[in-house]
Amino acid sequence: MRWFSCLALGLLIVTSVGAPALARVALIQTMAPLQDHTAHSIRAALEDAVKSAVKGAAAMGLSTVKLNQALVLEDMVTVQIVATDKEPQEQDDQNSEKGPSPVPGEGFGDSFL
Fold first, then answer.
1. What domain range includes position 47?
2. Which of 20, 33, 66, 110 shows a CA-CA span of 20 to 30 A to 39?
3. Which H or E run contains 3?
4. Which helix (H) or strand (E) covers residue 41, if one does?
5. Do residues 68 and 81 make contact, with C-beta atoms less than 8 angstroms apart?
6. Residues 6 or more apart in contact with residue 65 via CB below 8 angstroms
7. Which of these, 73, 34, 30, lies nearest to 52 by C-alpha position?
8. DSSP 82
9. Are 35 and 41 in contact, with CB atoms under 8 Å apart?
């Protein structure tokens, strides 16, 4: 009888402990060549680098991306994103109370110069 109660207790402990939810995270950095330092060239190189980074994240099965860093160097543009398979948290609702957030793809032509 003691053996049965130890087995039942062990089974109860094992089943009550759930596996932790692990999110996969990747830091992806891509580069695109820059022909000159005009706003049009910077925008085109930036779009190419972001598209390449997002394609890499999608290939790894990561659905959420966040721009971490973008640099305009002498002959190239580098972009760094953080990608994860975890859905965005409820922080978006809290951040909307603080004011509008910038829309990706709009307004970075002259602001990067």
1. 21-113
2. 66
3. helix 2-16
4. helix 39-59
5. yes
6. 53, 54, 57, 81, 82, 83
7. 30
8. E
9. yes
Q: Which residue has the tokens 């680098």?
A: 49
Whether 35 is in a domain gets the answer yes
Please name the residue that has the structure tokens 């965005």: 88
d(CA 65, CA 105): 14
Residue type, 91: Q
Decide if 9 is inside a domain: no
Task: Give the count of domains, the chain.
Answer: 1
Is the distance from CB of 31 to CB of 50 less than 8 angstroms? no
Per-residue pLDDT reduced to its tens digit, 26-41 = 999 999 999 999 999 9
- How many CB atoms lie under 10 A from the CB of residue 19? 5
Q: Are 23 and 89 in contact (CB under 8 A)?
A: no
Residue 90: pLDDT band with limits 50, 70, 90:
very low
CA–CA distance, 64 with 94 (Å, rounded to integer): 18
Task: Give strand ranges (E) for 35-75.
Answer: 64-72
- Contact (Cβ atoms closer than 8 angstroms) between residue 108 and residue 46: yes
